[in-house]
What does this fold into?
Amino acid sequence: MTGWESIVAAVGGLLLGVGVGLLLARGRDSALRQRMNKHLGVLRTNVIPLLESRAEAVELPDDVSEPLELVERLSTSLRRHEEAQELPFSDTVEFSREEARAQLKKG
It folds into this structure.
């Protein structure tokens, strides 16, 4: 085998490898795209309506049309709103049985 034949064989092998790699990548890309579309469908039918109804109940804005970004914004806003509504432990009132009995006797 001469030098030129070796170079042609190497280039041919390289092109064949790139072609096979592209075909495999296209197949994986198609499968990934199908899974992503399936998940987006679930988000649009189940998750987003639930988040939107909760956001409307607490009057949070939702001005995004992209499903993943909308889910992220609504869930973050709802979590922040709920955290703001929770009272810290130090704000709780301790009420013993003795105090309850004393209040019942008074009342």
Summary: The radius of gyration is 31 Å. DSSP finds three helices and no strands in the chain. The longest helix spans residues 3-57. The mean pLDDT is 77.
